[in-house]
Amino acid sequence: MISSDYCNDNFPDAVSTKYWHLLKDGRVQCDLCPRFCKLHKGQRGLCFVRANQDNKVVLTTWGRSSGFAVDPIEKKPLNHFLPGTAVLSFGTAGCNLACKFCQNWDISKSRKMDTLMSKATPDMIAKKAKTLGCRSVAYTYNDPVIFHEYAIDVAQACSEQGVKNVAVTAGYVCSEPRVEFYHSMDAANVDLKAFTDNFYHKLTGSHLQQVLETLEYIKHETNVWLELTTLIIPGENDSESEIQKMTQWVVEHLGADVPMHFSVFHPNWKMTAKPSTPTETVKKARQIALDNGIHYVYVGNMHNKTANSTWCYHCGTLLIGRDWYELSEWNITAKGCCLKCGKYCAGVIEEQPGKWGARRKRVLI
Length: 365
Prior knowledge:
By secondary structure, the protein is of the alpha/beta class. 25% of the residues lie in helices and 22% in strands. Helix 2 (122-132) packs across helix 3 (148-160) and helix 7 (240-253) runs parallel beside helix 8 (279-291). The two termini are 20 Å apart.
């Protein structure tokens, strides 16, 4: 862990990393994600925050953030991890994907934020989360894969304070750093952006298989609570056949208890000419997932209490009522089971819900 003793005016310009190797032609290859950027001296990777400095790959955003806010955990979205509680959210700048539909493009595609961001050591973040009553810290807004070292340092400090750690990620990471990263996490929402490699290659500049490998690793090799999100984009990943294949794969490879979130697309970044997703398309995707055996399926970016609430897959009882991010009904026992039939509701669910509600509060650290 990097020292947390830096003051606000004495942060390192860059910190050393370990997932890289020197090539015969003198360049350095970054081995953090499957993009494998090959960098000349002074050159940065596509993520923009990892660079070749003195023939080694360094991280240029350790200790720097695009800002902090307290959110409901359901906004990540995580519906089965400490429902109703507050989470301290932050990100940095840059991204290792090139999604043409990015909703946070001003952060993920920023090339000017290294000197403009808030500064905070891991201990500062952990103690602030504890003081604010946040049960967890979320690494979000941009993909925490690219600020791997900073995220892990913060996660270790949070764990020492009894604060949980949440990754919001696209899951595009190599196997060795993946093990180290998820060893420090308690929950993850992974974007399963589509179920064709053509979509991944054309619209994100990445590939599907490595994401599927990450999902299987998280589910079967860790104790990290996992949920999935798919942004449904008209004409790109919204066909019934693709949703069928995706949800069948989830049941077969991850299990029926992994919650899925299908969200409405709104025009953004380089896809402003694309229309918003009809709500009926998202509701249809949800129904396909339920029909294929997924126990918990939700919709996002649209108001639908039925599809945002948690229902017992066995008897149909409303377990957790949700109106946007406000919780209402709570019909779960102290052991996390349905009050009516006794079936277990998968997740990290406590005896009583949190009371943070739908508030969003920006904070300074």
